[in-house]
Amino acid sequence: MDRLFVPVVERVFTRIDEKNAALLAARESDDPEVRASVRGKRPTGPVTKQRVRGTIRRVRSDAEREHLVTFNAGALVKLDGGKKAKGVVFKVWLGTPRPSPVMVWTPVQLGAFLDYAATDRLYALYHLIAFRGLRRGEACGARWIDAELDEGLLTTAKQLTHVGREVKEGAPKTDSSDAVVALDMVTVAVLRAHKVRQNEERLAWGSAWTDSGRIFTRQDGRSLPPDWVSERFERLTFAAGLPPIRLHDLRHGAATLSRRPAMTSRRHRPCCGTRACRSRPLSTRRFYRKSPGKRLKRVLFWCLGRWLWERHPKLK
Description:
The chain is mainly alpha-helical. It has helices at 6-27, 32-37, 46-65, 73-76, 107-116, 123-132, 136-141, 185-205, 226-239, 247-258, 276-279, 281-285, 294-311; strands at 88-89, 103-104, 147-148, 153-155, 159-163, 166-170, 180-182.
């Protein structure tokens, strides 16, 4: 502990920068195997580096308080300021690269995606994230015992995350994430239809079915790897001819819908999990850029709801 000087801490971030450079170089490699080796991996951004430094600083502060060290090396390390990307609405897309790491669809684009993915077995998962703002891991970790469809409630008690190559179950990302999410009647109907399909798969697999208790599973009942769900979403987006966004961006798009004046009720509000937008309005909404025209937005949202109800007779 007493040998942790400033140059030692700086070497930690130098090593992070070297790994980031190697990862980006592997993405641009001509070797398919090299590109496949870094698939799903993301470089460590400036915000994460700030958090690493903060952890080192807190540990050193505790040691300094106990008189184990005489100075805080973490507080003396300088890093570039970490600023989170601002969300941009995909109004017009001409096949160019993403203008921002955080992009959201317009209601019309979201409706086009849901139209294309209506027959996909994971349609209910995309619908739940798009309208109720769950995180990817929360949706993959959702269990039927946490859902009260008659009451229109879903408790986000667990989430699935990747730890290396393994998928681990754990608590939600933040304390406020461990909360009850209100479900609108269309989302409840979508989940009921999904449960019917899952029961059919259970009967088809018979004794080979794995009873994981998850709402969203593989065809044999096993839990869904979150990275696989993201890749499937990206393939559907590409096939539908829509602007490329991440699965997590559907969560930010839920904040778009939550700004509709008629959706001010907490129970029927399709915000980012009915918790971040209420408890920390700036935490998730700062990613959302205002869409032009409140009246147009109100009409588009109403049309999207009517489309869902009319296109899916099983939901009625």
